Amino acid sequence: xxxxxxxxxxxxxxxxxxxxxxxxxxxTCHSLLPEDVLCDSCMDTPSKALKSCLTCLxxxxxxxxxxxxxxxxxxxxxxxxxxxxxxxxxCDIHCLPFECFCLMDNCCLCLDCAKEAHExxxxxxxxEARAKIExxxxxxxxxxxxxxxxxxxxxxxxQSNHDTIKSSVQEVCAVIEQQFxxxxxxxxxxKKGAMAVLEGEQRQAFRQAEGIQAHLExxxxxxxxxxxxxxxxxxxxxxxxxLQEYSQWKKREADVSLPSVYVNQMxxxxxxxxxxxxxxxxxxxLMLSSYSEKMNLICKSGNKMPESQPSPxxxxxxxxxxxxYARSLTFDPDTIHQFLRVTADNRKLTNTSPWQHSxxxxxxxxxxxxxxxTSESLYLGRHYIEAELSGEGAHVGVTYKSIDRxxxxxxxxxxGNDYSWCLGRNSRGFSVWHAAVETPLEVTDIPVxxxxxxxxxxxxxxxxxxDTMTLLHSYKVDxxxxxxxxxxxxxxxxxxxxxxAK
Length: 502
Hints:
By secondary structure, the protein is an alpha+beta fold. It has 3 domains: 10-115, no CATH class; 135-264, no CATH class; 319-498, Sandwich (Jelly Rolls). It contains 7 helices and 19 strands. The protein has helices at 10-24, 62-70, 111-115, 126-232, 239-251, 267-302, 319-323; strands at residues 51-53, 58-60, 79-80, 100-102, 107-109, 123-125, 340-343, 348-351, 371-378, 382-390, 394-400, 420-426, 429-434, 437-440, 449-454, 459-464, 470-476, 483-489, 495-498. The strands form 4 sheets. Strands 7-8-19-10-15-16-17 form a 7-stranded antiparallel beta sheet, with no helix packed on it. It has a 6-stranded antiparallel beta sheet with strand order 9-18-11-12-13-14, with no helix packed on it. It has a 3-stranded antiparallel beta sheet with strand order 2-1-3. The longest helix is centred in the middle third of the chain and has 107 residues, at 126-232. The protein starts with 9 loop residues before the first helix and ends with a strand.
């Protein structure tokens, strides 16, 4: 593009333009060509523009250009070759229209910028750059559209999965009912067997007693006869008769000793009760432990998220590495406890006790523990968050969305359950918590906390944010759900500020 440099003297400028005026005199009467730029000041008969003024943003023909050449007021105006798009954006430095695009710095340039500040950079005309970028955007749009489609399919699958889960649970319940019915039947059979043994023992004991009783009745009869004979002896009339009858009785004398009688006290039957009691306790313990251990084992293995492929990227080391996975999160106003206030675009949380805020009731709001959860979740891949923590009693960490919002138990706090991992500060210093287990940290101050979740490796780590990133503690985790950042502000004036690390 031919331009009139700002360093050109007024006389040279006038002479140059006048020469162009003379050269173009013969063309004004001819028909205008489609590519010609028209004078913006000619109202009746269109005329070909000779110059465009970037200061006035107007194109002028020979006649209307004269004030710019002859008046002192216009001597600082920038004149260029006629431009079709005179209103196009111009460079703030050189006041020239943008004509190319720097592909390295992603900014529009005028020709002077391309020769000066961006010399050696890869540039393209604005048309070529637009075509190239539109192609890239179209490809990116296609990728995002595919991701949206895949996400919609996943959501639909999850929604239909509710019915599948319900159906599967019903099927398993039917099997459990069947097996426990079978177990009840076995218990009834065992009961019948035990009762049959006792009834057999009872019949045997009755038969034994009846046999002994019959023998004793017989013996009693014999003894009664002997008594009757003995009662006759004293009634003999003479001594000879007495002695002769005695001799006869003596020959027939039977055993009159008391018969030994075995009366079974059935002590061994009482041992049946102890045997059944002990065996029942053993079976109950075995049954309960067996069901509990085996079902919990299957439950833990079945609830694990599908193992993802290990990341081909190396583990981050410096803060610059971690920032590649930075997430900018905000607190969900519907989860905030009534003693907490959120500011700074929902990124700063403050405990305002004893001042209570009149938040509306919501199922997601924490009622007892002074906590708040972020709106955005972390799921799959790598995620990095930075936060500032202020005051003894301030905690920040990650948990599952399923954490109880209304309970007063310690399991409703991010320090007291086995699906939360957090870092906080108390009177003893800084510590990390998981499943109500506190691990003190050997650090006196943490200006900025770095929280890093790696779903590939299955880990949640806490860092003291420095140029080298000091690892404070790391947990090995079998993730079951997406993670949400949660803050717990125990005391007045505690503050958690989620930084926009990006």
